[in-house]
Task: inverse folding
């Protein structure tokens, strides 16, 4: 008989099962990560001792019982299929879907142990990468003066913060930036949007062309056109995800393609840092903010 193990979940693609033995430990870790369950939570759902789960995942159980593996797989949201090709509906083999593996499965901590499969593990290059470095944002300390040694890798235990991090990673992967050219905009108006595959807009950049000769006449040797950046807007929940930078970079690429070399912008607070990061430079002159307020004075009410 031929054994096949598979699950149906998000981001899974059909795959073919070969004649090689299934790595039960790797599949179980991948299933547990897909279900976002710790070993203790999986053992409670399946009614299997936690020590058994740990022994199977570590490879310590050389030949685990099929019934035990089935209970663990089902508790993690998968199915264990055993049969011959042709036993499925309509004499077709049952569809088998591969489970995405654990990205950090090859990483080990200082004691040589695997990191928890259901967590997201990342390498620590500086204190800002480590949630335990409370001094990272406020102090610029050399490594010899760190209050605590910085680990080689870390992870987030809080499920809420973990979900936020995964959501942010998904947004970064799926968001796409494009120039809008099909809404009847004048040729001198530039509009870029950052949107998800379902059409939701998360960010927008607007700019327009102008002739520098309208400002300076023929007193300077300037090109016929230059860009004025009107504004960059990113929805509040998606700020600090790099969407604004991608919008500005898309504008720069389009400028290079059309032969425009100069762009102007007025920004404040975080917008200044964003544009400086994208290659803009501060000019010597400084604009003033003006306000028109035609509301009646308070004493007249």
Result:
């Amino acid at each position: 008989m031929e054994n096949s193990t598979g699950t149906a979940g998000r981001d899974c693609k059909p795959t073919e099962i070969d004649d090689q033995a299934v790595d039960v430990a790797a599949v179980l870790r991948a299933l547990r990560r897909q279900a976002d369950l710790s070993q203790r939570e999986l053992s409670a759902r399946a009614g299997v001792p936690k020590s058994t789960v740990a022994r199977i995942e570590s490879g310590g159980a050389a030949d685990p019982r099929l019934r035990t593996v089935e209970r663990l797989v089902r508790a993690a949201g998968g199915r264990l299929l055993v049969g011959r090709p042709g036993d499925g509906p309509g004499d077709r083999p049952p569809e088998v879907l591969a489970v995405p593996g654990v990205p950090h499965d090859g990483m080990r901590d200082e004691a040589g142990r695997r990191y928890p499969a259901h967590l997201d593990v990342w390498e620590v290059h500086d204190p800002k990468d480590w949630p335990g470095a409370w001094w990272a944002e406020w102090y610029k300390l050399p490594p010899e003066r760190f209050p605590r040694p910085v680990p080689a890798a870390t992870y987030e235990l809080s499920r809420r913060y973990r979900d936020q991090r995964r959501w942010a990673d998904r947004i970064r992967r799926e968001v796409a930036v494009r120039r809008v050219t099909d809404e009847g905009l004048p040729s001198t108006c530039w509009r870029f949007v950052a949107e998800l595959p379902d059409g939701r807009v998360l960010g927008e950049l607007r700019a327009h062309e102008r002739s520098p000769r309208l400002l300076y006449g023929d007193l300077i040797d300037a090109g016929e056109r230059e860009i004025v950046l009107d504004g960059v807007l990113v929805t509040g929940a998606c700020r600090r995800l790099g969407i604004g930078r991608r919008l500005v970079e898309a504008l720069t690429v389009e400028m290079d393609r059309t032969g425009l070399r100069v762009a102007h912008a007025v920004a404040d607070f975080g917008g200044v840092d964003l544009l400086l990061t994208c290659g803009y430079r501060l000019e010597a002159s400084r604009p003033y903010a003006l306000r028109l307020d035609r509301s009646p004075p308070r004493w007249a009410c």
About this structure: Residues 1-19 have pLDDT under 50 and may be disordered. Residues 147 and 244 are 35 Å apart (CA to CA). The helical segments are 24-35, 39-46, 50-57, 66-75, 159-174, 213-216, 243-258, 270-277. The longest helix spans residues 159-174.
